[in-house]
């Protein structure tokens, strides 16, 4: 083993490494293809026939039941639309966790745990090339597949918006994250988190659990940060009214006599005598709400996706530095140990 590390075999070409990664993880590749194809088919079904049938059912409902006439509408079409929308949305949102768990357990954790990685480094594959092949191939497949599904979800939602009375609003948390490029950014970041955790722990089961939990923490951080990544719109009202808005609420509070906006957590309207008295003490002349309207949907999606891609790049660099640190000088240390013996 010492001789193999000190005099490595000729470097294996990159295309051969890619083919080896695809062959090694063939079951995961097949599972991913089935998942993407199945969800894509369901979303296309939702986008076309299901939306049309549910929209027609709601037209019949509004034309009969809402006017006091005997109800004549296809309730099954409405329920079918809701079920397929819910199932496809939840399945799409689970992809970042699946990618992270798989990357931590199988992509890097198991190979470090079993020693397969070090064996590969003695067979003409340098550590950095080994890592690059394992990160690049899954990253391309996961990002492309999830991005396609995210755009199909957005189109399916748009087809029902304004036509189906029970359709989710754009600011619904699950709808917002599943529809667009943001879910692809989360999946890519989750994959890199899993790969790094697998290298750090070197134990597949531990890496699986830690990677999934780390992805959940990332999602919480993104959800808390996202509203502040784009300038907000502001709606203001006087003491007798309440600011009207539609979208993602970021902050609310009172407007003081100097015109300043002061965020408060209670009595953001004069809904009771106690609130009126408190707002008099505060010097309140009105109320405000900072929010993101529908026009901010795509800017928020794109900016947050860009942040996640940058984070994924940082995680990839950290993984490369970790592998380099663990492998640099290994031959020298082994030689020294052999000479001492």
Short description:
The protein is α+β, with helices and mostly antiparallel strands and 341 residues long.
Regions with pLDDT < 50 over 5+ consecutive residues? 1-11, 330-341
- What's the mean pLDDT score? 88
Largest sheet: 4 strands, antiparallel
What order do the helices and strands follow? HHHHHHHHHHEEEHEHH
Helix run count: 13
Net shape: flat
Describe the overall structure.
Helices cover 69% and strands 8% of the residues. The chain contains 13 helices and four strands. It has helices spanning 2-6, 14-24, 26-64, 75-93, 95-114, 116-121, 127-160, 173-178, 182-201, 204-225, 273-282, 297-327, 330-340; strands at 233-238, 248-256, 261-263, 284-292. The chain has a four-stranded antiparallel β-sheet. The radius of gyration is 27 Å and the shape is flat. It starts with a helix and ends with a helix.
Write the layout of secondary structure elements.
Blueprint lengths: L1 H5 L7 H11 L1 H39 L10 H19 L1 H20 L1 H6 L5 H34 L12 H6 L3 H20 L2 H22 L7 E6 L9 E9 L4 E3 L9 H10 L1 E9 L4 H31 L2 H11 L1
């Amino acid at each position: 083993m010492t001789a193999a590390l000190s005099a490595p075999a000729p470097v294996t070409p990159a295309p051969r490494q890619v083919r080896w990664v695809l062959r090694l993880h063939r079951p995961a590749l097949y599972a991913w293809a089935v998942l993407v194809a199945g969800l894509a088919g369901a979303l296309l079904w939702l986008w076309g026939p299901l939306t049309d049938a549910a929209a027609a059912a709601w037209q019949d409902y509004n034309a009969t039941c809402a006017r006091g006439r005997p109800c004549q509408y296809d309730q099954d079409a409405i329920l079918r639309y809701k079920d397929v929308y819910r199932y496809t949305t939840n399945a799409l949102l689970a992809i970042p966790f699946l990618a992270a768990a798989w990357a931590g357990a199988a992509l890097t954790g198991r190979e470090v745990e079993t020693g397969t990685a070090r064996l590969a480094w003695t067979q003409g594959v340098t550590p950095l090339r080994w890592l690059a092949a394992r990160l690049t191939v899954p990253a391309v497949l996961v990002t492309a597949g999830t991005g396609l599904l995210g755009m199909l979800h957005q189109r399916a939602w748009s087809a029902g918006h304004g036509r189906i009375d029970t359709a989710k609003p754009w600011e619904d948390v699950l709808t917002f994250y599943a529809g667009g490029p943001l879910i692809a950014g989360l999946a890519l970041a989750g994959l890199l988190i899993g790969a790094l955790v697998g290298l750090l722990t070197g134990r597949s089961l531990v890496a699986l659990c830690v990677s999934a939990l780390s992805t959940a923490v990332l999602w919480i951080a993104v959800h808390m940060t996202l509203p502040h990544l784009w300038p907000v719109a502001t709606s203001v009202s006087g003491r007798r009214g309440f600011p009207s808005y539609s979208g993602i609420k970021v902050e609310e509070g009172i407007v003081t006599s100097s015109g300043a906006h002061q965020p408060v957590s209670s009595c953001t309207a004069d809904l009771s005598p106690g609130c009126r008295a408190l707002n008099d003490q505060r010097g309140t002349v009105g109320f405000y709400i900072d929010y993101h309207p529908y026009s901010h949907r795509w800017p928020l999606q794109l900016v947050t996706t860009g942040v996640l891609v940058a984070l994924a790049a940082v995680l990839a660099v950290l993984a490369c530095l970790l592998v380099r640190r663990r492998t640099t000088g290994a031959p020298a240390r082994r030689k020294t140990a052999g000479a001492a013996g």
